[in-house]
Specification:
mainly alpha; elongated
């Protein structure tokens, strides 16, 4: 079990160019987790290194999504029209009104890109609240255990932070007017408008995209030994 745990720790945080160096780092971390004084590192410092690794990974995810075209040009997380509007959009395109549909979709993605940077401080707060047991579960969990931790602990705060930003962004770029225009052009559109919350839809898709990117960054850090390190990570997991 310890060997498996150490491999995960190292995949998350260390940089080693060959097997001999990697073995040295494994022994160093093994001493630390075993409470031995030879390494001079405590289990608490190992956990601190994990937290910094997660700060790096979430920071990258926020940077990738919270920039211009971060959502719009990423097919994995691009926000498409709500399923309720798909038939409407198809009909409008057939009538030569596809530009209105495109503007609506672009505006939703721009709103997501504006909201996402707020996640950085919320993720940092979640890291500060992380307990020793939380860190253990992340170290011994699957490839997205940390992302799942953030989903559990941060979704409510992210939703509260994103909602007003998304709402204002949708208003600013004219998405709400465009949405109303599209709805009015659709047969039965008033019924769709009455049961659909555009803000909630965009916020939900923003969260989906952000956590998807967090998961991808987490996998990279776990599997890529050349992942970016900080001073603490070098101290904890650096080569001898």
């Amino acid at each position: 079990m310890r060997s498996s745990l150490l491999s995960i720790v190292l995949a998350l945080c260390c940089s080693a160019s060959n097997l001999t160096q990697l073995d040295q780092v494994i022994r160093k971390a093994d001493d630390a987790l075993g409470g031995q004084s030879a390494s001079g590192l405590s289990e608490e410092k190992i956990i601190a290194g994990l937290k910094e690794a997660l700060e790096v990974s979430t920071g990258k995810a926020v940077a990738l999504t919270g920039k211009h075209d971060g959502f719009l040009k990423n097919e994995s997380i691009r926000i498409f029209l709500p399923p309720q509007l798909t038939p409407v959009a198809r009909g409008m395109r057939m009538l030569g009104e596809g530009e209105q549909v495109d503007e609506l979709e672009i505006g939703m993605n721009r709103a997501a890109e504006q909201a996402t940077p707020q996640a950085k401080q919320i993720f940092l707060a979640a890291l500060k609240r992380m307990t020793f047991n939380d860190a253990r579960r992340i170290l011994t969990g699957d490839d997205t255990a940390a992302t799942e931790y953030f989903q559990r602990t941060s979704t409510a705060d992210l939703t509260d932070a994103f909602t007003p930003i998304v709402h204002q962004a949708l208003l600013h770029v004219g998405v709400v007017k465009q949405y109303d225009r599209v709805i009015k052009s659709a047969p039965g559109g008033s019924a769709i408008a009455g049961e659909f919350d555009l803000d909630k839809y965009v916020v939900g898709k923003t969260l989906d995209g952000l956590f998807l990117m967090c998961g991808e960054e987490e996998r990279k850090i776990r599997k890529n030994p050349t992942a970016q390190t900080t001073a603490l990570l070098k101290e904890v997991f650096g080569r001898k």
